[in-house]
Amino acid sequence: MRAKGITNLVRLDNHAAVLPITYLLRDDDRSVRILAAQALGKFADRRAVEPLIAALFEEKFWDVRDEIVEALRLIGDPAAVNELILLLENDKDDLSLKQFTAWALKKFGWEQLSGEQQASVCILRDEWDGIVPLGGAAVKPLVNAVRNGTQHVRRVAAESLGKIGDQAAVSALVQLLDDEDSGVRKASAEIVEQVAKERDDAKLQTKALIALERWGAISSIGPGAFDVVFEASQSRDLAIRQQAIRALGLISGSRSISALMKYVRSSDVLIRRAAAEGLEEAKNPTATSILVSTLGDEDAEVRHSAARALKRIEWKPANRAEHIALAVAGKEWMEAAKLGKEAVAPLMQAFMDASQRPKVMAALVELGEPAVDPLIELLRTENDSAGGSSLRLTTVETLGKIGQRKAIPSLEKMMSDPELAIRRAAVDALRHLGWIPTTSLAQADVAIAIEDWTKLLEIGAAALPRLMILLQDDARAGQSCRVIEKLLASDEARNVSPEHLHALAGMVTAPTRAGGVQGRHAGGGKTLNATVAKRRLSQLARSELKRRNVPV
Q1: 46, 308, 331, 375: most buried by Cβ count inside 10 Å?
Q2: pLDDT value, residue 150
Q3: First-to-final CA distance of the chain
Q4: E-strand spans in 69-134?
Q5: What is the rounded CA–CA span in Å between residue 378 and residue 532?
Q6: From CA 367, how far away is CA 344, in angstroms rounded?
Q7: Going by C-beta distance under 8 Å and a sequence separation of 6 or more, which residues neighbour residue 200?
Q8: What is the C-alpha to C-alpha distance for residues 235 and 246, in angstroms, rounded to an integer?
Q9: Is 510 exposed, middle or buried (0-12, 13-18, 19+ CB in 10 A)?
Q10: For residues 33 and 103, which has the higher predicted lDDT (pLDDT)?
Q11: Which tens digit of pLDDT belongs to each residue from 419-449?
Q12: pLDDT reading at 523 higher than 50
């Protein structure tokens, strides 16, 4: 019914119907909206411009939009173009509407657009060939496209800026090198690099290479890159600062070396590392003095880079101390050991580094007797915070391999270490030193250290004092109970002293709180009830005392 009414009104050319028809642009029926737009176009009445623009902004279907634009073209009112321009430039992110608006403006009103607006239309329509002839007027829309477009749009927009090539376009690309979006930086930097090469502009090319994170390529530019790289070395971004400081070494030149010599004295260890690596790359003898002093830096990586740098400039140590410092900083541990006892202190310092410890251990063994006292002192003072069981284990092994008998008392103490691996290493080291346990108690100490429970049974009653002490060790109390029980239940009970029997008999003289004791047994790990186990030992000891007619 509504469609037929619209057709009749158009046939009658009744302009009084224009405003009522504009209301039909919002009709729920899509076909009615199309007929309304067509009718308004045929009327060509300027009163329809504003409703048509409003409908275009709200319309979601392209075929309806097409008819609205055609109606606006037929009306031919400049105000329609202005309204479309407002749609083109509004801040809403309706890309589909903007693309349609661009199509509409291309269809009519193109001549009324400024160069900047024409560039925006071309970008939205993906018509890049029409942008470059617009020159500087296209710069702003292109920059916006590089920042906000898809990956394809960013690339082509950046290329277009490069083709325009005037100062405004290049300046815009350079500003985009610092954009937060890596895609924007990359697209801009690739074009800036091309432009810089064509212009033989070292600074511009350096900026592009930094944005592209191609730090190694800066070496081909040489000293001309210094200003840009030095500025980057003062960036708030630590990663960029480090990369730029290293790159100063690729540039070389007096200004770069001076900057690196300053940075290698920084209080920030990461900056010192980067500077030392830069000096290594520079291979410049001017830095010899600062590199030699850097061999004493507190950070191993800084020292290592300084040592490599000195070797690259073929520096020769003037004395033994410098020779040792170079060898240690360069992690040439065996070379340091060959230089004698003066190398002990730096080697011991390196020994604390778990990553270098196996190699330093070999150097200390090579050094021999001068390393023994420091290693013994380390065993005396070492605790978990200084390196833990790994350090104790390697220290024990090192003393064993050096083979100096003055280490025996310290190694004997290590047979009581909480760690089984260390106790076993101590026994192996003592055996390597020719130490032989001559008494039963010493033999028991060895058996307990390596948890040789069968050997303790062979030693017999003579091992009982050590086994009774072991009852206080939660980790091994269970196994100790089992060995003592076997001793008391065998003929070996006759050899147990009355004092030890009384001590065992009195272990459970009053009710105690039951608790679990975890012990490792020959038959496998089992949990013993502490009270039950001790009561059994007490009963066996009492039986033996009664057999001897000794009062309990």
Answers
A1: 375
A2: 83
A3: 122
A4: none
A5: 42
A6: 8
A7: none
A8: 14
A9: exposed
A10: 33
A11: 889 999 999 999 999 999 988 988 998 998 8
A12: no
Look up residue 47 and give its two tokens.
């009163």
- pLDDT for 387 equals 53
460 backbone φψ class: left, alpha, beta (φ>0; ψ -120 to 50)? left
Phi and psi for 29 in degrees, rounded to 5?
Answer: -85, 120
Please return the burial class of 215, using the count of CB atoms within 10 Å of its CB with bins 0-12, 13-18 and 19+. Answer: middle
232-239: long-range contacts at Cβ-Cβ below 8 A with a sequence spacing of 24 or more? 233/259, 233/263, 238/270
> How far apart are alpha carbons 293 and 322 in whole angstroms?
10
Interval 329-386: pLDDT, tens: 999 999 999 999 999 999 999 999 999 999 999 999 999 999 999 999 999 887 544 4
What gap in Å lies between CA 303 and CA 269, rounded to an integer? 11
Beta bridge partners of 517: 528
Look-up: residue for tokens 């090579």?
366
* pLDDT (tens digit per residue) in 304-326: 999 999 999 999 999 999 999 99
Kindly give, in sequence order, each residue whose CB lies less than 8 Å from that of residue 323, ignoring residues fewer than 6 positions away. Answer: 317, 339
- 480-485 long-range Cβ contacts below 8 angstroms, 24+ apart: 480/519, 481/517, 481/519, 481/528, 481/533, 481/534, 481/536, 481/537, 482/453, 482/519, 482/521, 483/453, 483/456, 483/457, 484/537, 485/533, 485/536, 485/537, 485/540
The helix (run of H) or strand (run of E) holding residue 526 is strand 524-529
- Whose tokens are 């012990």? That residue is 519
- Average pLDDT (516-543) is 65
Residue bearing the bigger pLDDT, 465 or 252: 465
- Whether the pLDDT of residue 248 is over 90: the answer is yes
Choose between 93 and 35: higher pLDDT: 35
pLDDT at 157: 86
**In degrees rounded to 5, what are phi and psi of residue 296?**
-100, 15
Residue 432 has φ and ψ, to the nearest 5°, of -65, -30
Main-chain dihedrals φ then ψ at residue 481, nearest 5 degrees: -60, -45
Query: What is the tally of helices (H) and strands (E) in the chain?
Result: 33, 2
Supply the DSSP symbol for 45.
Answer: -
Q: What is the pLDDT of residue 5?
A: 62
Amino acid letter, residue 194: Q
